[in-house]
Write a structure and sequence with these properties.
The protein is mainly alpha-helical and 286 residues long. The chain is built from 9 helices and 3 strands, in the order H-H-H-H-H-H-H-H-E-E-E-H. A 3-stranded antiparallel beta sheet has the order 1-2-3, with no helix packed on it. The radius of gyration is 21 Å and the shape is globular. The relative contact order is 0.15. About 3% of the residues have low confidence.
Length: 286
C-alpha cells in the first residue's frame, strides 16, 4: 500500500511521486474513455448558448463546474495541497480544517487551470469525441469535469516533483543559483529527464491500448488466447494486428500519447519552473 504523500511533512522522493503519477495515468485514461462515449456536444462549451436563472453568462460547462466546485469546497477538497479549483469565490468548508504538514513553499499560489481548461475544451474534446450532438449534456459535462480534475491534479503535482528535485543534495546548490539568477531556461533543462519522459510515453501507449479495447465481441479459446471474429489478438500489441482483426478501441491511444507529450508534460514542467522561480521568495535559504 502506498503512503499518503500529503501527510509526510517533508518532500517525498521521486520514486514515491512516480507511483502517484503512474496511478493518475490510469485515472486520466479511464476518464477520457468515459467522455468519448458521448458526442462532442459543442453547445455545452459555448458561452450564451444556454440561459441560467442565476444570471450566469458563461457556458453550460463553466456553470456546472462552478456548481460542483462549490459543493466540493464545502467538504474541504481545495484545502488539500494537491487540489486546485477552476473557479473562484468558493464557499468556506463546513468541516473543520485539516492541518497538512508544510511540504510545498508556494507563496505565488500557482494555478494554471485556465490553460488546462482551454487545452481540454478546444483540443482534447474535439479529438476524443465523435462530431455531433446527442443531447447528453449533463453526462458529457460530468465526464468533462472528471477529466479536468484529473488533469489538473496530475499537472499541479509538478510542484511536488520540483520540491523533491530542489531538495536533492546533488543539485540543490545549482537550483538555488539558477533561481536567484531567474534563469528559467536552464531550470527547464535541469528539470527535464528525456529518458523518463520517453519511458512514460511508451507505458502510456501500452496502457491506452489495453484499457481502451472493447472486448464485447472477444472470447477466450481453450489455450487462453483472446479471439475476435475467430482471429487471435494479442491485447498488449493490438496495433500490430491487421485492421480487420483488431479489437475495437474506445479511445485513440496515439491521441492519449500526444495529449501527454504535447500538453501534460510541458504544462507540468511549466508548473515546476514557475514553482522554483518563487521557491526562495521571502526566504534566506541558500
Amino acid at each position: 500500500m502506498s503512503r499518503n504523500l500529503l501527510i509526510l511533512g517533508a518532500a517525498p522522493d521521486l520514486s514515491e511521486l512516480r507511483d502517484t503519477l503512474v496511478r493518475l495515468e490510469d485515472t486520466i485514461i479511464f476518464a477520457l474513455i468515459e467522455r468519448s462515449q458521448f458526442k462532442h456536444n459543442k453547445g455545452i462549451y459555448d458561452a450564451g448558448k444556454m440561459k441560467f436563472k442565476d444570471g450566469h453568462q458563461g457556458s453550460f460547462l463553466s456553470w456546472f463546474l462552478k456548481e460542483v466546485e462549490c459543493v466540493h469546497a464545502k467538504v474541504r477538497r481545495y484545502q488539500s495541497p494537491d487540489e486546485y479549483p477552476f473557479t473562484d469565490n468558493l464557499p468556506d468548508p463546513v468541516l473543520p480544517p485539516l492541518n497538512y504538514p508544510p511540504v510545498l513553499v508556494d507563496p505565488a499560489k500557482i494555478n494554471i487551470n485556465d490553460e488546462i481548461f482551454n487545452v481540454y475544451v478546444n483540443t482534447v474534446v474535439p479529438e476524443i469525441t465523435e462530431r455531433g450532438d446527442d443531447t447528453n449534456y449533463g453526462s458529457s459535462a460530468t465526464r468533462d469535469i472528471e477529466c479536468l480534475q484529473a488533469l489538473s491534479r496530475r499537472i499541479h503535482y509538478g510542484k511536488f516533483v520540483a520540491e523533491s528535485k530542489f531538495q536533492d543534495p546533488e543539485h540543490h546548490a545549482e537550483y538555488v543559483r539558477l533561481i536567484r539568477e531567474r534563469n528559467s531556461e536552464r531550470l527547464m533543462q535541469l528539470l527535464t529527464n528525456a529518458r523518463v519522459e520517453e519511458k512514460l510515453l511508451k507505458r502510456l501507449k501500452a496502457k491506452a491500448m489495453i484499457y481502451g479495447q472493447d472486448l464485447s465481441s472477444a472470447t477466450l479459446d481453450a489455450d487462453g488466447c483472446t479471439t475476435v471474429n475467430g482471429a487471435n489478438v494479442l491485447l498488449a500489441d493490438a496495433s500490430a494486428a491487421p485492421a480487420e482483426e483488431r479489437v475495437k478501441s474506445r479511445v485513440d491511444y496515439d491521441l492519449v500519447v500526444s495529449l501527454y507529450r504535447d500538453y501534460v508534460i510541458p504544462l507540468t514542467k511549466e508548473v515546476e519552473v514557475e514553482y522554483l522561480l518563487h521557491r526562495l521568495d521571502n526566504s534566506n535559504q541558500e
